[in-house]
Amino acid sequence: MEPVKSRREQYVESTRAALLDTGRRHFTERGFADVSAEELVRAAGLTRGALYHHFNGKQGLFEAVFEEFEDEAAQRIAAAIAGEGGDAWHRGIAGIRAFLDICAEPGYRQIVLLQGPIALGWPRWRELDQRYLGALLEDGLTAILGAAPAHPPPLTAAALYGALTELALTIADAADPAQARDQAVQLVAAMLKGVRTFQ
């Protein structure tokens, strides 16, 4: 049984949640650069002091929103892999399909793929992205390609992630995203079969 939270703890949680919800909505709809700290706190019904206390400003709030998206993505991909019956290959393809679906969603596309590198800077963006998705991708590749692949798993994972990210951006802009996603999954499967064949 969880301990009952004090009124202050409840207030802190609700304040943080209000800022995160507001940041998520505004950053997705308008972009990091076009939203001011003042707009964020006004929309959340809070003060600048609350923003700086919880997130040390607008960039800290953006980073927290970014991490929410990444954490949700990692959980969804892991669930897709776990929910797929069959061998490692089919589980890996299920994970790739889930990743492409997530990347094509407006919120993830805007916050993680398009705005993240600009708002956070490339080194920080890369650090956070690897924290949430790096190990998941490497583990999936190891399962698909075997315990002793000919190519280093981190290098293969980097190549695959770059391809998946570009494919996701293309899918999001396609006239028929569902069809483009299915074609992308087939393409990635062919690429992985090629890597596995030429080990």
Percentage of β-strand residues: under 5%
The SS-based structural class is mainly alpha
Gap between N and C termini, in Å? 52 Å
- Poorly predicted spans: none
Shape: elongated
Q: What radius of gyration results from the CA coordinates?
A: 19 Å
Q: What composes the largest sheet?
A: none
Order of helices and strands: HHHHHHHHH
Overall residue-averaged pLDDT value: 88
> How many strand units?
0
Tally of DSSP helical segments: 9
Bin the helical content: over 70%
Structural notes for this entry:
- The structure is a single chain.
- The protein is mainly α and 199 residues long.
- It has helices at residues 7-30, 37-44, 48-55, 58-83, 88-104, 106-120, 122-145, 153-173, 177-197.
- Helix 1 (7-30) crosses helix 2 (37-44) and helix 5 packs across helix 8 (153-173).
- The longest helix has 26 residues, at 58-83.
- The protein is elongated.
- The termini are far apart.
- The model has no long low-confidence stretch (mean pLDDT 88).
Features:
199 residues; mainly alpha; 9 helices; elongated
Itemize the secondary structure elements and their pairings.
Layout: H1 7-30, H2 37-44, H3 48-55, H4 58-83, H5 88-104, H6 106-120, H7 122-145, H8 153-173, H9 177-197
Helix pairs in contact: 1-2, 1-4, 1-6, 3-4, 4-5, 4-6, 4-7, 5-7, 5-8, 5-9, 6-7, 7-8, 8-9
Short note summarizing the structure:
The protein is mainly alpha-helical and 199 residues long. Helices cover 82% and strands 0% of the residues.
